[in-house]
Amino acid sequence: MTGELLAAAGCGAVVAAYLLHLVVGPGSAAHRHHRHTRLLRVRGVMAERSQAVMAVQSLRNYVMAASFKASSALLLAIGTVTLSAQAEGLARAWRPAGGVEWAPKVLVLLGVLAVAFIAFALTVRHLNHVLFLVGLNAADATGPRTPENVSAQLNRAGICYTLGMRALLLAVPVAAWLAGPVPLVVATALAVGLCLSLDRLPAPH
């Protein structure tokens, strides 16, 4: 059990380092770029009415993607609860001798999936506000309805979407942990590597 707990702690430290990199490290540069791009897009749409229809369609597609992923996270959580009902038999087959019990692993997996579901649900909430605000005339875009404030609302949706995607990706190592420490370490390395690749800006041509 000690070896498995050390592996879990090491993987947790790697994930924590990745999240720190995402917030204050080089990985935050891509997200700053995305935030500025959203601001420019909102300004352009609210200044030029001919772009409003395309903007609303894009936001609806965004809502559909977030809704689909929220549903996926919820279904995975339901599947995890169903799996936990058979935990005793599966644990005998999968859990290495002296390994960590299944119950804490299942709870961690449920927690990660809950974070993903809540993040995607909040994404839909923020986008619903943006759908109304982005269609305003420039003359009405005053006070809390300025392009900067609408962009801030859109950026909140982007943050929630990013959090939901990372939670879904990081649920894979937690699920792999059910099979033991080696799958956990391998899956963590792959998931964090994929997340790092998503945080890079494309090279200019």
List keywords for this structure.
205 residues; mainly alpha; 81% helix
Q: Can you describe what's shown?
A:
By secondary structure, the chain is mainly α. It is built from seven helices and no strands. It has helices at residues 2-24, 27-47, 52-84, 87-94, 102-133, 147-177, 181-198. Helix 3 (52-84) packs parallel to helix 6 (147-177). It is elongated. The mean pLDDT is 82.
Layout of strands and helices, then pairs:
Elements: H1 2-24, H2 27-47, H3 52-84, H4 87-94, H5 102-133, H6 147-177, H7 181-198
Structural class estimated from helices and strands? mainly alpha
In DSSP terms, counting alpha (H) and pi (I) runs of 4 or more, how many helices? 7
Principal-axes shape call: elongated
Biggest beta sheet summary: none
Strand proportion, as a percent range, falls in: under 5%
Which residue ranges are poorly predicted, with pLDDT under 50 across at least 5 consecutive positions? Answer: none
Which range best describes the helical content: under 10%, 10-25%, 25-40%, 40-55%, 55-70% or over 70%? Answer: over 70%
The value of Rg in angstroms is 21 Å
End-to-end Cα distance, whole Å, is 51 Å
Mean pLDDT: 82
> What order do the SSEs take from the amino end to the carboxyl end, as H and E?
HHHHHHH
The total count of strands amounts to 0
